[in-house]
Amino acid sequence: MQRTSDQASDIKRWGAGALVFAALAVVGGMSNAYVISLLTIVLLFTFMGQSWNLMLGIGGQLSIGHALFVGIGAYAVAILNIKYGVTPWIGLLLGAVIAGFVGAVLAWLSFRFEVRGIYFALLTIAAAEFARIMFGGWDYVGGMQGLFYQAPSSAIDLGMLRGDARFYYFVALALAAIGVAGTELISRSYWGYVWRAMRDDDEAARALGVRTFRHKVLVVSISAATAAIGGGVLGLVQGAIFPDSIMGMAISVDVLIGPVVGGLGTAFGPLVGSMAAIPLHHAMGALGDALGLPGLNSVAYGAVLILVVWFLPDGIWPSIVRLYGAIQLPARGPIPQLRKVEE
Amino acid sequence: MTALLEVKNLTRAFVGLVAVNDVSFSLQAGRITALIGPNGAGKTTCFNLVAGALRPTAGQVLFEGRSLEREPPEAVCRMGIARTFQIVRPMKDMSVLENAMVGAFSWTTNVKEARDKAYESLDNVGLAGKANARTDQLTLPDRKMLEMAKALSTRPKLLLLDEVMAGLRPTEAAGVVGVLHRLAEGGLTILLVEHVMRIVMEVASTVVVLHHGAKIAEGKPSEVVADPAVLESYLGAGFHA
Q1: Residue A86 included in any domain
Q2: Of the listed ranges A35-49, A79-93, B9-23, B113-127, the one predicted with least confidence
Q3: What fold does the segment set B1-72+190-241 form as a domain?
Q4: Average pLDDT value for residue range B210-231
Q5: Are B154 and A209 in contact (CB < 8 Å)?
Q6: Coil, strand, or helix at residue A315?
Q7: Low-confidence ranges of chain A (pLDDT < 50)
Q8: Does A8 touch chain B (CB under 8 A)?
Q9: Which residue of A49, A90, A270, A336 lies most exposed, with the fewest beta carbons within 10 A?
Q10: What is the interface pTM, i.e. ipTM, of the complex?
Q11: A138 and A227 share a domain?
């Protein structure tokens, strides 16, 4: 009986997801260039938010330096494509492999020497800043002047992953859909169960036979690899990459704002959160420019974060779900590290 | 009679305190053994040494002839020893069923298999009807039962129970006793650390008594409670029945 209701809620959940993405596809067909380019960024950060969400929301490991992985992905694609004319598909793959490896090494060293929780998060910031400064001083990759893609022709070239704004919108939409579906699938897989167990209680999970050390390294590595794929596409969309913009703290914050605002550990949270936070960020940026108040966008980010943490500590999405009680959440949970501090 | 677990000259010293001092005992397969003693006797330390949560200063723990005192807790679990925690520790953002599934992933990566095993474990402790509940909706006795179900999902040969009866009312404790008897009849070996003497008398076939970290008695419950050394440890010198 319980299993039948599981199946019914499965169908509901996947149906709802398919509807949302179908609607977004229609939006992409109809909207003007500004909306398209804004939504492309939202969807890319939905995907990268999912990668971050996988690590903290499901695996329980906090990163505030995801810009490191985003940047590795962006540079891998850009270097291969701009300098050697290699298709971005190869660059995305290579970027994911390198970022996955860097993530695994970082996690291995860190957890091996018992650097955990907030201290691990600090280490991720340090690693990202180290990479940003290193790339800034590295002439081969353009240093601070960065790397520029050739202006995309209007023709769509799937093999070289080049095209107009609408093309990138659909690429980003596909990535976001993969991110949401992937989170849902992983959350209910073997990995999802053991990761959520170690997120909720590391020691109790170990007592139940979960080899938490290797699973922590694994979740960081997978999160890093997927973030790199998002970064590679982000670089293509922006047409140029600079260490300060693609590996800066701002990227790390943009990556985590979606899941935190939308709902950590949920499949839809990062989408909802990115939809809410990133357009606001842009609008406030424009308003700030118009009023001669630079930094208004950051103030808006801060305000949204405070309001959400204060009024909807689980994020927007779980609150909607609880309100309607329609869809069961795969994995609910506020930020584990922060929660421990509160207790 | 074969010993499933052998504890040999186990010693654990903390700074300035020998919590467990040269303790030896063995667990017979399919039996329920109780580890008792007054507060601070070293029961929980001894328990944690067997579970791999602590490393001994000296001595050995042999499980099916294999030495496990240098193994981490997850390896000890995978060898066939499951434990519960004295303070219940449900994974609070996972459902009751999902909690019970985690242990099954120590021997399978198949989600359906894990779910089936979890239903079986929950059924064993009488929680099957609450599979879809959130853990914070459970009463304390149910949470204790969930701890057992989680451990049972790992398919243990030996189950270590740390004060499962603590905080339970007599009727609730009687329910746990029934479950323990059923599990032992099914061939499971159980070691329980327990405070409530009446319950120990009911369930255990062998009792090991610790006092100030040392073993002072071992035997059938009826023999042990008549032992003057045991009475003295619990009630103080000068008490004679």
Answers
A1: yes
A2: B9-23
A3: Rossmann fold (3.40.50)
A4: 86
A5: yes
A6: coil
A7: 1-2, 326-343
A8: no
A9: A90
A10: 0.89
A11: yes
